[in-house]
Amino acid sequence: MSESLRLGRILYTNVWPVYHYFDPSALSFPATTRTEVPAVLNRLLLEGELDMSPVSSFAYATASNDFLLLPDLSVSADGPVRSILCFSRKPFAEAVHGRIALTNTSATSVNLLKVIAEKAYGAKPEYVTCEPDLEEMLRHADVALLIGDHAIRADWANTDYIVTDLGAEWKNWTGKSMTFAVWTVSKKAAARYPKQIGELAAAFAASKQRSLEDVTPVAIEAKEKLGGELDYWQGYFANLNYDLTSERLEGLSLYFRYVREMGLLPQEAEIGIWSDNTQIRVNE
């Protein structure tokens, strides 16, 4: 294989356990990695500029016919996620009836907030899209949505605002877990490079497993690079789910159904999971 496989990586810390022990130079084929916020990765994958990348769940849904999910990989939460946060001066149930400032960095969280506001609370808010600057957002809105490291830092510094966790809101309302990001491979790349995709899937799975057996090294890196306390980061990573079980898929399917019903998704989302058929035949 002379061409490099083009990989994406989400900028935020929530994916770090999948990457902490992942070494692209150890692969048997060349690969390049581009690290961006979810919105940029979503666009690059949809435009064919990446072969495989974690992306927001909503981005996968918009073009699910052209992509497959890598097995047993996601960023999910069965309740509070701790990095998808709404900030408001008034209680959330009241504030969502006003103006909501949305982050411009991820479609999944934006649309999750719309689903919760409109379906769970019966609100018809006005939405504005902003750069992720909490004080500036709340100058113009009643609710501000921040995600990832922006949300974490704002939560640490917060003394004035009510904080609402959208993972907890979703769980309390639906009883389901919420999957925020998935690892996605284009069907073209899967057909062209099946062996390489299998090697990638195995490498990610091994890194994830090793990280989750002891999250302390990942937490130490997060503390060094972003600040905060070690026990915060240990709890943060331990709280997230990185699997893609039937339970995660149920929650994801419900989310896809709701965004479709609201007209946010132009077509039904079909969930397809990549599998290494050659490896399956050998095992059988």
Automatic annotation (TrEMBL):
It comes from the Bacteria. Keywords: Lyase, Menaquinone biosynthesis. Its EC number is 4.2.1.151. It catalyses: chorismate = 3-[(1-carboxyvinyl)-oxy]benzoate + H2O. It comes from Saccharibacillus endophyticus. InterPro entries: Menaquinone_biosynth, MqnA. HAMAP family: MqnA (MF_00995). It holds the Pfam family VitK2_biosynth. Catalyzes the dehydration of chorismate into 3-[(1-carboxyvinyl)oxy]benzoate, a step in the biosynthesis of menaquinone (MK, vitamin K2). This is Chorismate dehydratase. Pathway: Quinol/quinone metabolism; menaquinone biosynthesis. Belongs to the MqnA/MqnD family. MqnA subfamily. The keyword Endoplasmic reticulum does not apply. The gene is mqnA.
